[in-house]
Design goal:
Elements: H1 26-40, H2 52-57, H3 89-101, H4 106-128, H5 134-146, H6 151-154, H7 160-178, H8 184-204, H9 211-226, H10 232-255, H11 275-294, H12 318-335, H13 340-353, H14 375-388, H15 395-419, H16 423-433, H17 438-450, H18 454-467, H19 472-484, H20 488-501, H21 505-516, H22 521-527, H23 538-547
Helix pairs in contact: 1-4, 1-5, 4-5, 4-7, 5-14, 5-15, 7-8, 8-10, 9-10, 9-13, 11-12, 13-14, 16-17, 17-18, 17-19, 18-19, 19-20, 19-21, 20-21, 21-22, 21-23
Length: 569
Amino acid sequence: MRIFAAPSEQRPQVPLPPVRRLQLSTGFITAALALTAFSLFIRSATNFAAYDDLLIFYGNPYVQHLHYWRQLFMQDYWRPVAHGGLYRPLTLLSFNLLWHLRPRDPFCQHVANLLLYAAITALLYLWLRRLLPERAAVAGALWFAATPLHVEVAATIVGREDLLATFFFLVVLVLFTYGREWRSGWQALALLAIMLASLGALLSKESAIVLLPMLLVLCAVNYCQGAVRPGRFELTACALSLLATLLYLAARLAVVGLLTHKPAFYSNPLAYQPAGWRMLSALAVSGVALKALLWPVRLPPDYSFNQIPMVTHWSDWRPWLVLLVLSVFALLCYRGRHQPALLIGAALLFGAYAPVSNLLFPIGTIFGNRLLFLPSLGFALLVAFAFSRLPVIPRRLVAVLALLGLVFLARLDWHECDYWNDNALLFPMAAQRAPNSAVAQAYCGIALIDSGHMHTALAHYQRALSIAPAYPLALEGKGEILLVLGQTNSARPLLRQALLLQPSPNFLHEDVLAEARGGDPAFAWRQLPRVQPLPAGFLSWMKLVLTNPRKPLPPPPPGLRHGTGAHVK
């Protein structure tokens, strides 16, 4: 028996076929990214409602009846709570339709937001892969899907405004990028979709006004890089987007006016500074925005007075540091001017942030994490570009690092989503992370009053008044607690001052109770004309309380709660 064959009898060596690398289809990667984005924030699906959800969703009767859908296109976004000069009828219409399907059910609203977030991530990947290699596009889309910066938008009901606007924004960008290669019949459908999506983005939120300039930037960059003139498809798309913008501006001007109303001082103190100092303060706020983009960990949900101090002297280093960083970045863009992805990412980041930065004009708030949702598209493109420029790294090491980073961000996302379940969890977190915000401290007091922790709430109101001594909400909240504790003489001046600073039914309600317990009932009557409109039955309730101060208090009329009335149950 022979163990080894003779050389002449050995079989010829057949070369093995090369090992084929696993090639994932575009559809599979798109679906995987969408599922990842959905899963990262799925914990928010069981949330109730917090902050503005209670006012805009549960406090707006026009959202709660389907036959009011036409009225939504003819009213302010904040009606009937306030008039802020915001026009977002498509967002309100989406609330209206889902309310009709599942009345008062926040689960349906949250799931709709998660589906939109997943769709945005998928569209972002499809757009990025036309500008950068596949792996870089995946890296940029993963950053967008996983960053905790987006918790406020993805975990709240009113985040629908940013989600809808960004979804339609990306629909336009994807169709504009891909449509040039399609046949004429499909191009016609794409152009119609571009016009409708442009109008949909603007009717969802005003920040989509940068869509037309972004299309022009894409045409300019493509022309400068490849010497390819914009064709008929690109020019027609820009013209249709311009038409949609003009239609939106005409509707907005007819309903709410062109610009937003002047905000309250405590919401945006920049609006009360001279133009020069306002711009320097806005640059300082931009530094906070840049930090949130780079390190989105333990972000506060409120930045109002005086969490970000205003710039009042030339020696303040914050705006000059931001100008230095912007100058260095501009130099990098100049040196990389032959890289289309770098230029487009920078244009989208700064172009989308400019209208909400308070640099051009004051807006309704000094800053909010939600304001960075649309600009983060540009930052995702910059992340993808930076990934594509990294030196060659072993793929296994890249995969391990990416997995560890994704797990870290996923843990943060799940933890942060819990805070947005309701005000009882959100406001204490806001007071802890924004200790210098009078608004955060006062709203924490509201949450503690609702849970019966009067003395702890009183401490937060006192903290709010130490930051802003004339803040009406803190004055009224402290006065309410003192009234409940039986210290009527101490509560009366606080409630009076709050009512004089901000006439409102809830403030008048507390003042009437204080004046009925040994005060001056005539004062409440004198303030009555300043407080309009009054809830039904308020006047008769007021008469009953003031004319029978020693009898048990009758229940307040519908529309009022015993407390600050800062949110609706």
